[in-house]
Amino acid sequence: MASTAESPATGGPSPRETSPGRSRAALPAWRGALTRLIALREGSIIVVTIIVAIYFSVNTSTFFTGTNFKTLLPYFAPLAILGAGEVFVMILGEIDLSIGAMYMFAPIVFYKFDTAGVGLVPSVILALLVCMAVGAINGASVAFLGVASFVTTLGMLFTFEGLSLIISHGIPVATPGAQVTSTTVQVHHIVNGHSITLPEKVLHRGTFASVFGGGVYAELIWALAIVALLQVALTFTRWGLYTVSIGSNKLGAAEAGIKVKLVTVRNFVLCALTAGLVGIFEAVRSQTIQPDPSGPNELLLYAIAGAVIGGTLLSGGSGTVVGALIGALFLGILKDGLILQGVNANYLLFYSGLAIIIAMTANVFVARARRGHTGLG
Amino acid sequence: MVGPESAPGDVLRVEHIAKRFGPVTALRDVNLHLKKGEVLGLLGDNGAGKSTLIKIMCGFQRADSGQMFLHGRPYAPKSVDDAREQGIETVYQDLALIDELSVYHNLFLRKERVLSPLPLLANRRMKREARAALDEIGINIPRIDVSVARLSGGQRQAIAVARTVNSDADIILLDEPLAAMGAKEGAQILDLVARLKAEGRVSIVMILHNYVHVLQACDRVSMIQDGVIALDKPTNETSVEELTEIVVNEYRRARAAAHAAAEE
Predict the structure, then answer these.
(1) CA distance A256 to chain B (A)
(2) In a domain, A185, yes or no
(3) A226-254: per-residue pLDDT in tens?
(4) Same domain, yes or no, for A256 and A335?
(5) Predicted confidence (pLDDT) per residue in B73-129, tens digit
(6) A377: nearest CA in chain B?
(7) DSSP conformation letters of A26-94
(8) Which positions in chain B touch A3 (Cβ < 8 Å)?
(9) A109 & A213 share domain
(10) Which of A180, A312, B12, B198 could be A307's S-S partner, Cβ–Cβ 3.0 to 4.6 Å?
């Protein structure tokens, strides 16, 4: 309140905030566009991502190539989907650590249902329903029992990763429906006027595998679709409005009549659903279901990092799904670029860490400026 | 203590309401009535139970015992939404504004206009209606698409009040509408209340601290002490002196009790 009281009683934004707007007209068009871009919630990270991409394009011959784009995809598409769900929980001011467990658990449940003869697609649906039920338990525990989400979901993370190991006996299995079969066909070539026939291997992937993450662009298309859908839900529906309201002022939201508990449960369900979906995609893409918690645990932290880099505050009330996508893209480009540049693998984590710290600090300042607060607010 | 008394013109009647929070008794036995078009000022010391009473009337909390009647029919709101549907709107002490949302989203919170068939927010329509509503009740907010965090305390209060006025409510509950406000801003809110009173459409219960404001803006005053209504009078039959006297006596009693406890 202290800082808002500075602005005159009659009104509107204080002079401090309007001054860049006034000077904008005098600037060249590109500077105006840049000012507007930075004013966006995701603006700073868009700029940083572009700079990093340009840096790697200039410094490596292989970064800006189609082949590398395909290498880059699996780095960021899963993170973008995980981040999209996580953002809905983080805007509430909560956190969901159990996404790592859902990521690991979903393919194992899917495998069990499929081997029980349920069929591929029904097994996926059932596995996702199981994940959503776990999400509902997370949400209910936070909303009704008042347990801190960090504690609840940490417990769920260990429990369901443990359960995954128990059910699978820790043994990797081939993902049902994801096998790539090869057939040998005889191909005619004309060499120096002579017709010769050589055998060639052709790979086949089933429709199921192609759709659920196996196809080269499958996960990218899913990621873009999910991000678009959830961003619209966040910005243009009551659900999104209420999510922001709860994260910004929980008591106020309740007093206004928003069903805080219902929205909380719903967002945890969504988060678990996206995590389970990514788990199945990755199992199909890699053709194996690996019951090993180390990968999921790393991915979980990267997904949260991506959301934070993309402008979502851990304290709640603010964040975007698109931001999480860009955050994921940034982390993907950073990792891929550093590898291409031949950076010692030992430095990867170090650089990622620095990037997260810098982005997070920048976001705090950007958020303050947007709300019209000074550093002393 | 004031007992329940029913009058035919009452829009809201509260009878024998009691509420405890664990070992703390917030309300012991509260009786209140509100006539159509009336502005009732609610006074009382900090912790006397004024806000609790408001929260029970608006459906945010439920009374342990007692009854309420709305337009003569039993009234037991299950939720804030339920109370709102029955025509009771509330401005809370903490305003219940969402800092991150724009002025117009705050104005329409829980009453959002949506498009059909897709349930998307009709932002343009809400902006237009918000502007019209603010103009109609004479609140000057230059930009309604900025977040409310950027507004002054008075403007925030005005938005919170406008939110209730911009509804079909026939009863409005205001919990300390002049809290943390400058004299000029406070006068604007009291002007708004006076205008609503002149229209005669809504009845208002308003928690205030300043006796002068109560006598100026309200038709009647009720004072809560120790969880019961200690005084209930039309404002033209009481004075700042009488109201002060009651509070001073209470302080004397409290001090005497504290002394007695200390000596034991």
Answers:
(1) 6
(2) no
(3) 999 999 999 999 999 999 999 999 999 99
(4) yes
(5) 999 999 988 998 899 998 887 777 999 999 999 999 988 999 988 899 999 999 999
(6) B149
(7) TS-HHHHHHHHHHHSTTHHHHHHHHHHHHHHHHH-SSTTSHHHHHHHHHHHHHHHHHHHHHHHHHHTT-
(8) none
(9) yes
(10) A312
Instruction: Supply A35's token pair.
Output: 């000012």
Range of the domain at B95: 10-263
Contact at 8 Å (CB) between A246 and A111? no
**What's the CATH code of the domain at B149?**
3.40.50.300
| Residues of chain B with a CB closer than 8 angstroms to some CB in chain A | 60, 79-81, 84, 90, 92, 94-101, 105, 109-110, 112, 114, 119-121, 123, 140-143, 146-147, 149-156, 180, 182, 184-185
Confidence of residue A129 (pLDDT cuts 50, 70, 90): very high
> Quick check: helix, strand or coil at residue B147?
strand
Q: Establish if B134 belongs to a structural domain.
A: yes
Number of independent structural domains in chain B: 1
Residue A353 lies in a domain: yes
Q: pLDDT of B182-211, one tens digit each?
A: 777 788 888 888 888 888 889 999 998 888
Task: Identify whether residues A254 and A305 lie together within a single domain.
Answer: yes
Rounded Cα–Cα distance for residues A276 and A280 (Å): 6
pTM of the model: 0.83
A374 min Cα distance to partner chain B (Å):
12
Across the interface, whether the CB atoms of B184 and A9 are under 8 A apart is answered yes
From chain A, pick out residues whose CB is under 8 angstroms from the CB of B110.
256-258
Contact A125, A67 (CB under 8 A): no
For residue A33, the one-letter residue type is: A
> What domain count does chain A have?
2
Could you tell me if A5 and A140 lie in one domain? no
Q: By residue range, what is the domain housing residue A252? A: 48-175+207-370
> Token digits for A199?
């055998």
Minimum CA–CA partner of A251 in chain B? B96
What is residue A323's predicted lDDT score, i.e. its pLDDT?
93
